[in-house]
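During the no-cost extension, the postdoctoral fellow (Dr. R.K.) reprocessed legacy sequence entries with the updated structure-token encoder. One reprocessed record is reproduced below for audit purposes.
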Amino acid sequence: MRVRHHGTVARIELARAELGRAAEPAMREAIVEAGKQAGFQYVALDLVGYRMGSHNEVLAARSLPVVR
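Re-encoded structure tokens follow.
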């Protein structure tokens, strides 16, 4: 498990095998409460799961369409 700090957001990376358990109501509430107690306004679960080097990932250089 790892928690990334993105300002007011805590992004939680779990092993893929633990993602389902994290979505269970009691576990989800405990995770959110722990994030709030740590001072985060938002607590997010990274659905890709924990992976080494994820902090170094970058977006491909390309133009994105404007959605109106």
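The chain has a mean pLDDT of 86. The chain has one domain: 2-52. The remaining legacy entries will be reprocessed before the final report is submitted.
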